[in-house]
Specification:
Length: 449
């Protein structure tokens, strides 16, 4: 590999995963953030690796028509966003290209279904945000560093969170700020009048946290301290509406950050669910998808390992007769399940599903699988494994869950090859009704009726 040095001129060929531009100099790949395909840029090197180099733009020589003025003045300094320099239309194209490229390169498809893109409000969409605290500064890490950029306004936050962010630096004493490593802000149902504040510290913060809550109760719904012994003042959970119910989501439970896109995902899940379906849902969380699935399908078995999420799910799914809740990891639960299931819905973490989960899903032989992923590379790997087990990829939806960033959410629909050619509704082999129960104590089963 050539030893690159000094300033070089590079033409950007494409954007790759992470929103970084890819160009070449003397045959070596150079990754350059904050660029656009077709641009010619003057670059200096930030780092050189064995297979590639990393550059920093010094000057744009040929400007892409997709480039725009970023909506945030801290863009390029704050590392929270990757794509604010591109128009929304260009961001959509980039994400679709990255998804298709991952499926073809990692999954080895020669062609894939054309992804159906589902957009989002471009700004003011985030219901939750985690902030770093360093030397009294509250903000986000600078790109490629562990240095915190102080942030008092963020255009991707919903107004209530943005207002809370602006208040934090003065609402928390300098001594308290020096004792913190992170702050999380969470907002509930619209219009959210107050926010939940989660403080992570290097020492116990009992007096400081209680004083902060008492002094800011006009805009703070509750304060939770995650340092040493967990302590809380006021609310420790928020609620989100769903038809006549309200989902409870505790401070330690995961919930999607974009309410509008979350609703769009639910619409697609319901469209792919049939009234006669018996559903297995893996990584089910607080019941965000379980509840609408149970309203549509005959029965749902929901598997979740996190105890706090399971506690919320028990509350949220209370008195639903066709739901079985199983507290266990997917890896432990799936080999012991026998079904029959006509539909499997899974939403694994970023690293994807474990190989044994995918292998046992093939043995369960559901007619259809809906796989929701936040990472195209692990999605491509897992879809390839499922297709090797007898499934065919039929639909792809790409959701712009995180506008202005390189992240996306993808829903893939698969159908068992033996069922692809069948016409009409699939037969349901489960003649029973009500709740399907299991009694293995090692799986920590809990049922709500």
């Amino acid at each position: 590999m050539p030893n690159l040095a000094g300033t070089m001129r590079i033409q950007i060929e494409k954007l790759v995963q992470g929103g970084v531009g890819l160009g070449r100099h003397e045959g070596q790949v150079v990754f350059v953030p904050y660029t656009a395909p077709g641009e010619t840029v003057e670059v200096t090197l930030r780092a050189q690796r064995s297979q590639y180099a990393e550059g920093v733009v010094q000057r744009i020589l040929v400007r892409s028509p997709d480039r725009r003025e970023p909506p945030c003045p801290l863009f390029g300094v704050c590392g929270g966003c990757h794509l604010q320099h591109l128009t929304e239309a260009a961001q959509q194209r980039y994400q679709t290209d990255v998804l298709v490229e991952a499926l073809m390169r990692i999954g080895k498809w020669t062609q894939v279904p054309t992804p159906i893109s589902v957009a989002s409000p471009p700004l003011a969409y985030r219901l939750r945000v985690r902030l770093a605290v360093q030397n009294g500064r509250i903000g986000f890490y600078q790109h490629h560093t562990h240095q915190v950029v102080a942030v008092s306004h963020c255009p991707v936050l919903i107004p209530a969170l943005d207002a809370a962010l602006a208040r934090l630096a003065t609402a928390l004493t300098p001594q308290t700020l020096r004792s913190l490593s992170a702050i999380e802000l969470q907002a509930g149902a619209h219009p959210p009048e107050k926010v939940l504040v989660i403080l992570t510290g290097k020492r116990a913060l009992t007096r400081e946290a209680e004083a902060f809550y008492q002094a800011n109760a006009s805009w703070v719904a509750g304060v939770v301290v995650e340092s040493g012994r967990r302590q809380a003042w006021g609310q420790t959970a928020l609620t989100y509406p769903f038809q006549e119910r309200r989902l409870r989501v505790g401070a330690r439970s995961f919930f999607q950050v974009n309410a509008a896109v979350n609703a769009e995902i639910i619409v697609r899940l319901i469209q792919q669910t049939r009234p006669e379906d018996t559903v297995l849902e893996l990584y089910s969380g607080v019941g965000n998808f379980t509840l609408p699935l149970a309203r549509r399908a005959r029965a749902v078995t929901a598997v979740e390992s996190h105890p706090h999420a399971m506690s919320d799910a028990r509350h949220n799914l209370n008195r639903l007769q066709n739901v079985t809740l199983l507290q266990a990891t997917a890896e432990a639960a799936v080999p012991q399940l026998t079904g029959p299931y006509t539909l499997v819905v899974l939403n694994p973490p970023r690293e994807g599903a474990a190989p044994n989960v995918l292998a046992h899903l093939a043995h369960l032989q559901p007619q259809r699988i809906l796989y929701l992923s936040c990472h195209p590379a692990t999605l491509a790997r897992d879809l390839a494994r499922l297709c090797q087990g007898g499934y065919r990829l039929t639909y792809l939806w790409r959701f712009d869950m995180f506008p202005q960033t390189a992240h996306m959410e993808v829903l893939a629909a698969l159908e068992r090859e033996a069922d692809v050619a069948k016409e009409g509704p699939h037969a349901n082999s489960n003649e029973g009704s009500g709740v399907h129960s299991m009694d293995d104590p090692d799986l920590s089963l809990s049922m709500d009726r």
